[in-house]
Specification:
Elements (H helix, E strand, L loop, with lengths): L20 E12 L2 H9 L7 H14 L1 H4 L10 E9 L4 E12 L4 H19 L7 E11 L6 E2 L6
Antiparallel strand pairs: 1-3, 1-4, 2-3, 4-5
Helix pairs in contact: 2-4
Length: 159
């Protein structure tokens, strides 16, 4: 499948005749920040509000709007979307993992990746007034299931 026609012009891939199958995807992102900022997040001392709750809502909302953000991406009827956060003391960081699920004709990898990306950007936005050195790193697909291409599980990170 390609998103280019015989003349090299972009177009949306036709998935009309594909079977609906159960599809899932998980993605990962890492936000690196100062010890002070991480501590303020843990203590609920960020003036914009509860950072991880807002980031979770932003991630879920963005997973449902991925086709509005990525050209030629099919709109999907997600049946589940969730994020988890792990606070790491050394080096100070927040690991984000998303999970999305649906029954449909095309995979949900972009939805999972969009979800962790927007959650990471939300963390940055809520904390930028006290820490402009925040870095968003390592956004990647962890796994996907379903569809014609089968299952994928990331074995290791690339160097």
């Amino acid at each position: 499948m390609s998103q280019f026609d015989e003349n090299g012009k972009a177009y949306m891939v036709d998935v009309t005749d594909k079977e609906d199958t159960l599809r899932t995807a998980r993605a990962f992102a890492k936000v690196v920040l100062s010890k002070e900022t991480l501590e303020k997040i843990k203590q609920g001392e960020i003036h914009k509000g509860e950072v991880l709750t807002v980031a979770k809502i932003a991630g879920i909302m963005s997973s449902k709007k991925t086709s509005e953000l990525i050209p030629l991406c099919h709109p999907l009827n997600l049946t589940f979307s969730d994020l988890t956060f792990r606070l790491i003391d050394e080096p100070p960081s927040i690991e984000i993992e998303s999970f999305v699920e649906l029954k449909g004709k095309t995979g949900a990898e972009m939805e999972a990746l969009t979800s962790v990306s927007i959650a990471a950007l939300t963390i940055y936005d809520m904390c930028k007034s006290i820490d402009k050195n925040i870095e968003i790193r390592e956004i990647y697909l962890l796994e996907k299931t379903g569809g014609k291409s089968g299952n994928f599980r990331r074995e290791k990170k690339l160097d």
